[in-house]
């Protein structure tokens, strides 16, 4: 196991506690990977919104492609902010043992940046494309 040399001379209670500690560490790392995956999904939704706007840009009425793009941008914001909320909540409920806890402040900044980018794109789509 991580951080140990041998299990000889240890009782089953100590070994069970170590297994529990390692399971919690694995869970924290899984939460971090899941957060990264949801951030990627949010970026993909932003790209999908921009792509739909580009493909259907000449469509009439002009508000339809803007609305489609806006829908996916808003969905990206919901996905990213929901993932951030769940990740930060899970990290704060658990404690690390042998691994370093992820920086929730950094994830909050990334989620805010992605959300702000989506908002700026929504404003740009409605303000600059006729």
UniProtKB/TrEMBL annotation:
Cited InterPro entries: DUF202 (IPR003807)
UniProt topology in membrane: Multi-pass membrane protein
Keywords: Membrane, Transmembrane, Transmembrane helix
Subcellular location: Endomembrane system
Pfam families from the UniProt entry: DUF202 (PF02656)
TM region positions: 36-56, 62-83, 109-129
Residue span(s) of domain DUF202: 26-88
Signal peptide annotation: none
Protein name in the entry: DUF202 domain-containing protein
